[in-house]
Backbone:
């Protein structure tokens, strides 16, 4: 690896890997599912996104910049993130699993859902270690919330506050922040702002200048994606004038499922040259979402073009999605001639999406471009790396690029992505655990009284097997059961066949295990053992392994 690098991390919202043509390998595959072979990664054939595309006539949105980045860089096939937005963002900032950084759900607007991590974010580490790197955060934050404050005497209500807008600067220690802290659709009394709306042309922006210390909150009438792109380009010019290296996180609000063409600002994006789908509403979700997907790609292109040739030679760029697509997006990608996704006759399961522990919810698109990628694709096709990894690993790689000394969490393999970049080994993590839970996490992760409300744990290993336990039922009221599920993802990329269906209510759960045989039993034992060692086996689901 060379000297300390500049780093840009593009984080895109709610757009799963099945929307990106650089992940498409269906053209290499014969039509029979059992005969599919992926020549790029023969030992890890046909991941979730490619299998989904086999069931679809959906046309990929044009993403020429990401295609360029993949073909000249490194494509990670088994990058995993949280199933929802906020936990992924907090993991990217801290290098910790959501159980440690305390955010296990999307921040929805409660003073009790503060970012309770007691360690330091990547920005704070850089500050504490007197890094020369500028710390720039553009776009979405969505990592914390607090509401007991006001601006100039105007109460901001439960969902937004001056305190939460200042968090990226004061708590996160970004020297320069430009963006909306929380998600769209959060009410701010005094502003014309609809609760629940995903309106991308009117939003509340916080802006902080690290040099002057000035801090402003304002409502903008421009398009958020256009503004985020311009803010990133302005930030590059600012640090270039000062001769500083930089870490810049550009966390786009898009592609988050748009309600309608007007709300997503489709016509304005077209006038600004961000997509080629025209100013008129195309009339269907698939084309609306495709327009936003292409627009984010255009934003990446414009920011990339703003780098000087010298800066490009010294900048590592990461493109990452924060979770899988929503069920609406998956429905849009399904073949219109088939029944709706998830119905009989259509194997494309819309429930395997954002908020779920299946790969459609946690399998992220991830491409890395830059001078530290050994043996890049060279413009012909991506160099594909199939090692198992997670968003926490990306934190440690960013720290390495910027020269930051970051302490690893227990069980973290901080060298995972360095091996990928060096092209020195096909091996990733031995196993990767992902959790989702109701915020308010406490010692007893299974106790509703303690606020744990664990919803699921997903444990997968390097061999391509995954064990899930899922909390079924409504809470805080209603019957609750735990359910085991086991999948061989390398042979069943749609996760359609549960190899070990067993529920807490089953009197024969041990008997079900006792008849489990062959490879499924071996893999179950390994995955279950890892969860047991981490004290993640819920009451009533314990088994005696043999």
Residues:
């Amino acid at each position: 690896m060379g000297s300390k690098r500049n780093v840009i991390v593009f984080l895109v919202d709610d757009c799963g890997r099945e929307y990106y043509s650089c992940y498409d390998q269906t053209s290499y595959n014969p039509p029979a599912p059992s005969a599919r072979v992926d020549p790029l990664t023969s030992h890890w054939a046909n991941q979730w996104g490619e299998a989904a595309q086999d069931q679809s006539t959906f046309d990929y949105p044009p993403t020429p910049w990401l295609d360029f980045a993949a073909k000249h860089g490194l494509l990670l096939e088994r990058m995993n993130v949280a199933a929802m937005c906020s936990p992924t963002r907090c993991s990217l900032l801290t290098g910790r699993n959501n159980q440690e950084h305390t955010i296990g759900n999307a921040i929805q607007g409660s003073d009790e859902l503060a970012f309770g991590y007691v360690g330091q974010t990547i920005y704070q580490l850089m500050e504490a270690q007197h890094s020369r790197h500028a710390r720039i955060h553009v776009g979405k934050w969505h990592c914390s919330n607090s509401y007991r404050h006001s601006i100039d005497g105007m109460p901001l209500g439960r969902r937004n506050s001056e305190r939460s807008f200042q968090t990226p600067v004061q708590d996160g220690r970004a020297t320069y922040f430009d963006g909306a802290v929380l998600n769209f659709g959060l009410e701010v009394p005094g502003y014309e702002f609809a609760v629940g709306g995903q309106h991308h042309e009117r939003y509340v922006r916080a802006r902080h200048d690290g040099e002057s210390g000035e801090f402003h909150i304002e409502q903008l009438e421009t398009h958020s994606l256009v503004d985020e792109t311009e803010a990133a380009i302005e930030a590059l010019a600012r640090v270039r004038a000062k001769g500083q290296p930089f870490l810049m996180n550009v966390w786009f609000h898009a592609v988050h499922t748009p309600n309608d063409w007007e709300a997503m600002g489709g016509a304005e994006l077209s006038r600004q040259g961000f997509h080629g789908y025209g100013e008129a509403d195309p009339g269907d979700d698939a084309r609306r979402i495709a327009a936003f997907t292409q627009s984010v790609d255009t934003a990446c292109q414009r920011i990339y073009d703003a780098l000087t040739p010298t800066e490009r030679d010294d900048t590592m760029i990461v493109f990452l999605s924060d979770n899988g697509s929503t069920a609406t997006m998956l429905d849009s990608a399904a073949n219109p001639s088939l029944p709706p996704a998830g119905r009989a006759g259509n194997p494309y399961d819309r429930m395997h999406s954002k908020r779920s522990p299946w790969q459609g919810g946690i399998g992220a698109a991830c491409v890395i471009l830059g001078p530290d990628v050994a043996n890049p694709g060279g413009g012909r096709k991506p160099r594909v790396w199939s090692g198992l990894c997670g968003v926490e690993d990306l934190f440690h790689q960013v720290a390495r690029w910027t020269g930051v000394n970051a302490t690893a969490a227990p069980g973290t393999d901080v060298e995972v992505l360095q091996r990928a970049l060096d092209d020195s080994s096909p091996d990733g993590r031995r196993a990767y655990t992902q959790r989702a839970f109701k915020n308010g996490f406490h010692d007893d992760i299974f106790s509703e009284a303690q606020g744990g409300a664990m919803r699921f744990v997903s444990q997968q290993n390097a061999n391509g097997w995954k064990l899930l336990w899922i909390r079924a039922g409504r809470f805080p009221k209603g019957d609750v059961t735990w359910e085991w599920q086991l999948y061989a993802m390398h042979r069943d990329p749609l996760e359609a066949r549960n190899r070990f269906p067993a529920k807490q209510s089953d009197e024969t759960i041990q008997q079900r295990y006792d008849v489990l045989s062959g490879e499924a039993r071996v893999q179950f034992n390994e995955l279950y053992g890892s969860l047991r060692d981490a004290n993640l086996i819920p009451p009533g689901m314990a088994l005696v392994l043999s």
